[in-house]
Amino acid sequence: MRGNPIRHFESWFRAAQRAGEKHPDAMTLATASKKGAPSARIVLYKGISEGRFKIFTNFESRKGKELRSNPRAALCFHWKALDRQVRIEGRIRVMPRQDAVKYFHSRPRQSQIGAWASHQSQVIPSRRYLLQRARHFEKQFEGQAIPMPSYWGGFLLVPERIEFWVDGKFRLHDRFVFEKTGRSPEWKVRRLSP
Question: How crowded is residue 127: how many other Cβ atoms within 10 Å of its Cβ?
Fold first, then answer.
């Protein structure tokens, strides 16, 4: 495996879509607190911008706070239909607000309302409370465009390491890792033992 790992990723992602993978855009996002305590969750892949992976969230959520206080993260895609996996590790940057606003307005209206209604990751008294908040914001923004909340936005994961894994018989998998070295724009690729 040689060349640009972003192009390889995009090719594999399209293959997963064609293979009928139920959620080809599901990815695990792993973050860590300032003290290094890890956490992971499944989020949806929203594309790549200039070789950087996009992540959108409420900045006050657990992942939002962790991405700001410890700006390193990892992503993992697993496509069972292809018996393939991609692992991505790198630095986090806050996305320019205008780019996050553009994405926010591309979301379904109810998802935009949800961003206002949810105190993401915070304890709430009941589901009823959440639904009441959603109804409140539906009325508040009735007949108008919904602004993106100030506490909501995007991050960009700037990859430094991308590993491609293909299932092999008897656990003799194929593994290739692309790594950036120093400030060089070039990727170094090596085969790994399974």
Answer: 8
Q: Greater confidence, 172 or 60? A: 60
pTM, 2 dp? 0.91
pLDDT tens by residue, 71-112 = 999 999 999 999 999 999 999 999 999 999 999 999 999 999
Pair 87, 74: CB distance under 8 Å: yes
List the catalytic residue out of 2, 171, 183, 190.
Answer: 171
| Class of the CATH-defined domain 5-98+151-192 | mainly beta
Q: Delimit the domains of the chain by residue range.
A: 5-98+151-192
One-letter-per-residue 3-state SS of 109-120: HHHHHHHHHCCC
36: its two tokens:
């290094």
87 is catalytic: no
